[in-house]
Amino acid sequence: MQVRRCAVLYMEPREEVSFDLAVLLAGGDGLRRERRWLALAPHVGDEVEVDEVEREFLGALSPSQWVEAATLTGHPAQTIDRLLKEGLLIADGKRHSAMRARDEALRGTYWHPLAATLHAFTRWSEVDAVQNMKDSGTETAAQMREVLGPPPVEAAACSEGAGHLPLPRIAPNDFDHLLARRVTCRNFDASRKLPLELFAQLLQRVFAAQAEVRVSDDTVFLKKNVPSGGGLHPMECYLIVQHVEGVAPGLYHYQAQQHALEPLALPDKPLREFMMDMVAQQHWFADAHVMVLLSPRFDRTFWKYRHHAKGYRVVALEAGHLSQTLYLAATEAGLGAFITGAINEVELERAFGLDHVHQGALAICGFGWRGEVMETAELDPAGVVWAPG
Ligand SMILES: Cc1cc2nc3c(=O)[nH]c(=O)nc-3n(C[C@H](O)[C@H](O)[C@H](O)COP(=O)(O)O)c2cc1C
């Protein structure tokens, strides 16, 4: 059997601090501090605790050169077996093909190693963001100030004012009025169906291919209404449709060239419950008529930006462009829109059949009719959307 180390592996010396009465009674500060080594390998996706022997062994192995396992004398067979099982060590042969395939997929996607690690280990599973805010006492702005202290100043200044160049204030036009009406919507009216034409118009404006450049049969670049790093448009759009006329509630993939919906398998629970889980229990988004998972195909962007230090950032920035375009298109149509980064990626990947090595879940946007009553707070200090009081 030949072995090599997996392609990307970071070791974290993690310290966990917990209260311990025994430490307090012994005259200490009451805190027990425990350190352990965690192996972070993005193709695995879960942290693996390792001991010193395993850590040193992995550090001594090449990720690019295969060696005969039999020549690794001085290393107990159980160390090799365990690291193979965890996927930190890769071997040839059928028995180890699953982890080898994952490692090869990561190599073949041309991730920057730090970006791959950031992406893999910042995914949430079964997180309840609302409960977390309750537990930390940071549900309202006033509570945040109380618990966290004052934030950094709201707008930075480099000097005291002397020498400033005041700029003219330009009279607002229709575009300014549209921008002013863009307010993150946290109150949807589930009782009112969204007409198919509005739904289709928004998807067409925000996510559809508007034209294409065909370099050869296998190399095509799309033109869309948003900018994209390298013009590669890696972002796929997966939909959770709840209340749209003529569209059965369920999961869909939006095909950007055909401007068509591809129906996907239904989740294994009621749709609203599924939506709640996906947005980490943020109930104020759960009645949205449509949710849009922004899901980049990393391999498309990293095809050009191989192991590139900015590749992941470029992809993440694109989510913002799509989101703002969706906000404005929705606002223009008289609808409300939102974006949330508080999502349970692991469950989203499972539901939509995605693998975080090739394709991620970056954010969820949504849109639909606003409700009549503001039950959850929205930021509308000028009273542009909601009448003051
Ligand atoms: C990347 C990103 C993530 C966000 N995530 C959340 C979220 O998890 N929950 C939420 O209620 N709002 C979320 N928002 C909306 C912001 O809270 C909102 O934009 C901000 O309060 C300003 O309000 P406005 O959009 O109405 O101007 C997010 C906004 C951005 C840009």
Automatic annotation (TrEMBL):
Boundaries of every Nitroreductase domain copy: 180-369
Domain of life: Bacteria
Pfam families, sorted: Nitroreductase
Coiled coil: none
Gene3D superfamilies with a match to the protein in the record: NADH Oxidase
Classification via PANTHER family: NITROREDUCTASE MJ1384-RELATED
Descriptive protein name: Peptide maturation dehydrogenase
Species of provenance: Lysobacter niastensis
